[in-house]
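thoughts on both lines:
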Amino acid sequence: MNAKSPIKGVKLITDETENRRYVQIDLVTLAKEPEAVEEYLDGLVALARRNEPSIPHEEVAKAVYKRAKRK
């Protein structure tokens, strides 16, 4: 069970219910086009997380600075 991928050498493998489960990457493709593969994977992660709540950048920055001051 494979889903189409826009990059030759990268396959999405789905389970029996057609949920995306695995990504198979040809190492030659990864060596030749690492940025394209990385962007594609980033897009897949973004799609998987699209329904998660978001946190404003300012809130994250405050938490990071606060944590850095403790060290």
Strands lie at 2-3, 10-14, 20-25. The chain has one domain: 2-70. The CA atoms of residues 65 and 71 lie 10 Å apart. Residues 34-48 form the longest helix (15 residues).
